[in-house]
Each structure stands twice: as structure tokens, then as C-alpha cells.
Amino acid sequence: MQISKSDGGAGPQPRRALPPLSVIPTTEGRGIPGALVLDEIEGELGYLLWLTLRSVLLWVEAPVTARTDLFVENSGDKRLARVNAAGVPDELASPLSRLARLLEVPAQAEPYEVARACERVADWAVAERHARTALEFVQAAARCCPAEPRLSLAAGRMARELALYPIAQAWLYRTILLARPQEDWVHYARAYLSLGALMRQRGAYPAARRFLLRACRHAERHGLREVWGMALHDLFVLETEAGREEPAEQYAIAAFEAYGPGHPLLVNLTYDVGFFWLLRGVFGPALALFEALLPRVEPRFRPHIYGGMARAAGAIQDVPAFTSARAALAAVPAGVGVAEAWNDVGHGALSLGRWRDAYNAASRALALASARGEARQCHVAESLIDCSARTQRACGDAATPGRQRPPADTARILRQLQTVRAASG
Amino acid sequence: MTGPVHHRVVPAERGARRDPARAVSRAAPAEAGGRCSPILRAMRAPRRILLVLHPAVHAVERLPARQGWLVRRFACWATLRGALADAPPATIALVDPYHDSGDRLAPELHELLRHFPSATVVAAVDEPAAGPADLRTLSIWGVADVLPLAEEHTANALHQRFARVRVREVCLQLEELSAGLSLPVRARQILRAAAEVTAVGGLSRDLARSMAVQRNTLTRWCARAGLPAPRRLMLWIRALHAAALLDDPGRTVESAARACGYSGADALRRGLRLVVHWTPSELRTRGALRTLAAEFGQELRGTDG
Q1: CA B133 to CA B103: how far, in whole Å?
Q2: How far is B145 from chain A (nearest CA, A)?
Q3: In the predicted model, what is the mean pLDDT of chain A?
Q4: What whole-number distance in Å separates Cα of residue B191 and Cα of residue B232?
Q5: Among residues A9, A8, A99, which one has the least CA distance to residue A48?
Q6: ipTM of this complex prediction, to 2 decimal places
Q7: A166: which chain B residues are within 8 Å (Cβ-Cβ)?
């Protein structure tokens, strides 16, 4: 979706007063503003992006009436020459040149054009895995168009992925306040969905359930089938993690129906059903499911699959499958779900009776989860570390393999899966 | 039935004098009446001071006069360091990070930031000599911002930048506290504004003015947001500013007190006694800003609950 020209900057007035953008916590902490860009991207390109980000922020934070004389004369030409000389990637050349023109005539620059250019830089950064640079530019775009819920939501989601929770919360609450008066129900419901995911990530389950139910209700009320499916899906995951099997199963079936055949998110839901089976001790079918899913999922979801495979393989004493899944996970950098995946590897190793491997995997999970403030994963990792030490002392060899057949109540989900598979051809 | 009126100080009031939390309830009615406590009345209002150690930055002379900038130029690191020792919290030092050091970052700057970690130091460079590596080093040293002079050497740009970097140490501490306590957005807004207003010697009426509301509205907002009454809040924030300066190894208690608008070390001690039981020296040994922020957090939890 593109930013419409009519609503760049101003937009309809919300019923409740919006808090100023200055209330949103900053990412720089005690360093210089934009230092994250310099840390992530080295050399001339990093410096150029840092300069660009600063110009945009200086321009956007100055009152509209005070945007003349912000920059030195001819600094736009100099910046343009720098962009041309730096040999920037093709995707960046156009947005950086556009942002360089901001220095020439700051008073006449259009906020929606500046925001669009910032978004393009962020898209490039996401593709290049420069997540913090991407966040800085998405935030700059959201500041350029402060009445645009889509940009506010994008900033909130990106901050959540980087585990910058206060920043994410501030942007997501802002999205809700912006979207409600504009009757933009898609972004309204998605903001609640994101807040639910954020709370789940932090281990605050009651708050997560509240937000997700609200997202579910609004999506259903306004006929947003996809968002409705996503909310049901997240509720399924939440109840699984909370250990409430019956509601979890009901949410899973409802989510399958809401997505419908051929929906791209069905793959993720199927993975979550596999994980649900893992927790219920149905290891053989879960491993087969994960192996079938691996080539179909996006790369960013692969850590989850590797973790699930290692856990299931460990439980059925399939050492080669366990080893290959663990090796594949070791090549994945830190990010969303990686701590959880290492905890799964720890569980798998425990089932195999490989205490040292279990300890190492849990220690790695603990370090990753602590860095990202994921309370639940920290707790799981600590339990694993404790368990691996105690079990090593208590018993010697292998653990009992898990159940091979799904229990009777899982058959309903299996039937649902088969129906969806048949319908999608 | 009427009885004799006792004008003696009853034990409860004596206790209130000692216990900062009780002092709030006694102070609150005065808020609506508009009277200041003697401690606040005795304070000087520090100006926005800009200390410049950079021969090439001329735009500072054209900073908006109505903002009350007082610009002082220096020729060497030693005199700048002397001036920073007595500078109020809203002071900004604008320096050339390569001053007297050729193409290397000046070790004197690093030394300065080690002695005055709470100082807001902004480095102005045409082009960093060692490229982005120098910027990263400056960031690690604790420089608040870096101005690329080739692009931003205008009075307007300097003014916008300085507005953003002021009193960041206390603001960061308050931000961390707000996040930890999950304070509502309005509470964060009030805290931020209070930090800005107290840094230039403002009182609770100035805080209300800066937020464009009546003082009674501000009092109501504070109560709803789980914050102490405005006057009490200002006492806390002023004490936090003083604590930030007390953490600087290069300052004496006397200079920290004077820099924050107290008439001296005794006035600071009396001001602190209204909010905590520590003396400035005790605070200093415990890590003044962190200790005081933790105490403030305790009071906010109490107010909220």
C-alpha cells in the first residue's frame, strides 16, 4: 500500500489527543543519535546513511515554520556528489538522491515523499539483514507522516522483532489511536495482534490473551478474514504455550477454517500444530510433518522448524536427524525464535541422554533469550540447565522414546489438515 | 464543645518533617494556592549556557536571543574543563574533537568526559578524519551528538539540535524508570517536560505553562498518571539533576549544588532531605543518580498503588 498524497502529514483528527512523538523512547540510549547505523554498516555507505538519517530527523523534528535555513547552502549538491561517488547499491541510489534534495529546499519538501524514500531505504536494509538500520529509517518515515497508521504499525512491529519493547509498545498504541478515528480497521486489528504477540514474547500471557481476543473480535466484526485467522492462530499458539490443550485445539480448528485452502499462512499453522503434537508426546508424526514443511517455509521461520525437528528426533532416538537439525540451527544468526529453537534442541538432547549437549544448547538459549528479554524462554532454558545436571547425576543412559501414534483427540486436527490439503490440491 | 487551641508542634507534624513521604500531603494544598517553598524561592534560575571550544563555529552567535543562550568561547581544554565544573545541568559544550591534536581525536576530550560524564558535549566536525570509526569512538566516549558542519552549520540547525540533546542523562534515567514501571504515556510526557523545565530553573507553574495547561489541571493529571503533586515532582527532578552532577568526579558538592540553582551545599542538603534521607556525600558514595532514581521509583510505586 502506498502513502496517499492527501493524508501525508496531517490526516483526520483523532477523537482522543495523540501523545506527541517525543514521548516515544529513542533507540540511541547514551550513544550519538543514529549510531546503530554506523555499528551495523561499515565504511562510506554507513556514513552516508547516517548523514541521511540525521538530515531527515533534523528536518522532521523542526517545526514546519522553522524548516527554512536548516542546511548550509549547496549542501544538497555535495550530498548528491557523495551519493554518486560512494557507489551505493542500485536500490539505494534513487531514495538517497531524493533525500539529498531535501537539503536544497527543506521548506518545500513533501512529508509523504520523504517518508516513501525512507521506507525504500528500510526495505533495502531488511533485505540485507540490517535490522536496526531498517528500524531507524521506518521510524523516520513514521515521524514524517505522523497520521499514517501503516507506518506506525511497521515501526512497532520492527521494534518488537528487535525486542525493543518500550519502543514497540509506544508505536503500537499510537497505531491504535490513529487507526480508530480513521476507521482503518485492518491496521487497528493488526496493532492489537502485534501487541498480543509482544506480550506473549515477554511471557505476559493474560495481557497477550486480552489483546488477541480484542484483535479477533474486531477482525470478525469488520469481516477481515485474514486478520481473524491470524488472531485465532496466535490464540492457538498462546494456549498451547500456556498448557491449555482444549481451547488450543478449538482455536487451531477455527484458524484452519478462517484461513481457508491455499492461504500462505497455512504452512505456519501446520508447523504450530506439529509443535502442539510435540508437547503432547506425538513425536514420530511431528518429525515427519516438520521434514515435509522445511522446503515450504520462509527462511526466517526455519529456526523454529530446526528446533522442532531436533526435539522430535531426540525423542524417537533418531540421532542422525537430531544432529543434522542441530547443525542447521547452529548456522542461523540470533533473531526471533532462535532462543526457543535452542531450547528445543536442549529437550531433544535430554531425550537422547546427551547431557552435555543439552546443557550447551540451553546455555546458548539462555544467553539469546536474556539479550532479547524473552522471560519465558529464559525460564525454560534455566529449567533445562538444571534438569540436565540433575538427570546426569540421577540416571545414566538413554531416555524413554515418545509416543508414536497420535492420541484420539488429535485426529480431528489431522482430518481438518487432510480436508484443507485436498481442497488446495 | 470547644477546647483550647494548641500552637505547639504536635508529634505527627514533627514526624512529617522527617519523613519525606508525609511532607507531600502537607505540601499539596500550597500547590493550588501558588506559594513556593522557601527552598524553591531561594533558587537562582540558571541560563542556557553554551561553552564553545571550536574556532570555526560562527553560527552560535546567531542563536535565537529569546531562548536566552549565553555563549562563552574558550581557547583550550583546561579552561573549558574549569568552566564545566561549575556549569548548570542544561549547559552544552560544543567542541572540536580534534582541537590541538591534528588528525587524532583529542585525548583531552576523553579525559573531560571521564571527569564529567553527565555533561552534554556535542562535537562539531567538517569531516571525521578517520571516517565513521571516529564517530563510533566519540559515541563510546559519551559525546551526546556529532554535528556535521559541512551540512548543518546554520543557527537554525544548531538550535534544533541543542533542543534535542539537553539534559539527556536525567531524561534517560527517567525513561528507564518509566519503562520499568510501565508508566502511562502522560506520565512520561510530564516527567520529560519536568526535566526540561527544572534544568533551566523553572518551577511547577512553569511546568504547567510548558504543557499549556492550568496548574489545577496539571495537579489532576499528575494524580491520574500516578505521579506526585507537581511541586513535589519538581523537588524530585531538581534533586535528580543535582544527583547527576554529583556523579561527576570532577565536581565538588558545592559546585554541583550551585550549578543546580541551590545557594550552596547546605541548601542542597536541605533540598535532598525533603525527598530522601541521604546527604549529598552519602548519595555520592552510592552512585547518586541511580540511588535517587531508585528512591523516586519507590515513591512512584507508592503513589500509583
Answers
A1: 13
A2: 5
A3: 85
A4: 12
A5: A99
A6: 0.70
A7: 175, 179
